[in-house]
């Protein structure tokens, strides 16, 4: 079989926001999968984003700026504590199935990342809730040139139906999502099937990073240079990232699948090489 081209996994960000403020918009249909949707919206002071979760749930991550928020009859007058994604753990908003939500920009520039996933059979009644920086689990993963910082926003320890959301900050010159792992097979307790989207930002916007998405049989084998604001789709396979020296990298991971568990297996060739 012929390997899929890099264009199938790379989604470039727009240079300017659309009329609705959207910088990048990925639907399940456009990605060719079933579970993950994603959007980045930029608002100017006083602009409002108004949405409703119909057959889905959503997690809004405030990338930068401050805003007023309302969801499911609750209101939060002033949320958001960072100027950019590198400025500490984020505020977020979990929006459950069938809820209206609104965010209004309180500062000149507000950037919001919105991850969505369909909810077919809800396990319980859930209500929208605010996620504060103190709710976010902060940890260090890896060592040496594989060390990076993790911000767990909506992982398994936080209630939701299907979404898993985390941020990763990788210093320039370091590898991330390494050793390479995959989660494309329902093989519990070893592995779960999860679609995944990487949303990349660089501390220096002129910079770049490299991401590879590949399967062992190489029917999917893509290596892409990502720029500030780009997305990489991971429908299956291993998906390591490397930040170029001098260019600190941030990425936001949105994952979803039939089972809300993050179980992965490592590339055995790399495991042997690192042993």
Structure description:
- The chain is mainly β and 275 residues long.
- It is globular.
- It has a seven-stranded antiparallel beta sheet, with no helix packed on it.
- It contains two helices and 23 strands.
- The model has no long low-confidence stretch (mean pLDDT 95).
Can you give me a brief rundown of this structure?
This protein is mainly beta and 275 residues long. Helix content is 4%, strand content 45%. Strand 6 and strand 7 (74-79) form a beta hairpin.
Give short descriptive properties of this protein.
globular, mainly beta, 2 helices, 45% strand, single chain, seven-stranded antiparallel beta sheet
Structural class: mainly beta
Q: Strand order, biggest sheet? A: 1-20-17-22-14-13-12
What value does the Rg take, in angstroms? 18 Å
| Helical content class | under 10%
| Overall 3D shape | globular
Query: With helices defined by DSSP (H or I, 4 residues minimum), what is the helix count?
Result: 2
Uncertain segments of ≥5 residues (pLDDT<50)?
A: none
